Amino acid sequence: MGEPAYDLVTIGEAMAVLAPARGARLATADALTLGTAGAEANVARTVARMGGRVAWVGALGADPLGDRIVADLEASGVDVSHVIRDDSAPTGLYLKDTDETRSTSMYYYRKNSAASKMDAGLLSRLPARAVLHLSGITAALSQTCLELTRAALLGTHDGLVSFDVNHRPALWTGRDAAPVLAELANAADLVFVGLDEARALWNTDTLESIRALLPGPATVVVKDGEIGATALLADGESLFEPAPLIDVIEPVGAGDAFAAGYLHALIQGRSERERLQAGHAAAGRALVTTDDVGGELGELLSGSDRLL
Fold this sequence. Notes:
Layout: E1 6-11, E2 15-19, E3 33-37, H1 39-49, E4 54-57, E5 59-61, H2 64-75, E6 78-79, E7 84-86, E8 93-98, E9 104-109, E10 129-135, H3 136-141, H4 143-154, E11 160-164, H5 177-186, E12 190-194, H6 195-202, H7 207-213, E13 219-224, E14 228-232, E15 238-242, H8 254-267, H9 272-287, H10 297-307
Parallel strand pairs: 1-4, 1-10, 2-8, 4-6, 5-7, 10-11, 11-12, 12-13
Antiparallel strand pairs: 2-3, 8-9, 13-14, 14-15
Helix pairs in contact: 1-8, 8-9, 9-10
């Protein structure tokens, strides 16, 4: 196969997000802001805004919310020409509500969305790419979405495959997510997982136990919140990079931003330490905003140039 058309392709659900102004509550707000969210879409937008060639592949309803998402992604530089528009199912959405303690609650309306109907046939729409990125969220949406995720991870690839565990317990009600997400993670080349997430999901308390559970990937990046992140490498070595001190406004989207920063540095051929630093820098920009994707284009490029 020739030169990849994109540096990165992501597959997943993009949703519309509604939220009141900072400091206001859903129950009493007079107005809500409308934006675009979804783990894989967040990664795509962030990498594109850093200058990467990115495509997002998914399914949206043939409705105004789907139109808004397409426009938002295009405005960030993401190619959406491979997206399915479904006139028989709606675009998913969620509401954000932040209380006086800065605790954020999310209320999802994604059941029977266009994205939940995605299946392995979507893989035929994938363009040539250097990196393919998916997450455990897509696998949880429906049985056909699980089959799509499994096929993408276990199939024949023309580039590196990245997987963010992204365990969302509410999406797995009545099902045991632990063995499924371990299986999917072990089929990837690169895995992102939170230490607290691994503990809750697999009862793994140490880096060694996580690596023992996930021997398949060449690299497993374990994130430990405000402490830092550790890359567990294929040769048995590990590399820790502390997180910078951040005055957090809202944590939503920080994990996606970390993955985006890391992947952008990987695509550029940067060292493992620089990849971790880039992940922290991108996550930091997401932590100081109420938007799911942090920072203006200039800020993202400035941070990328400085830390990459």
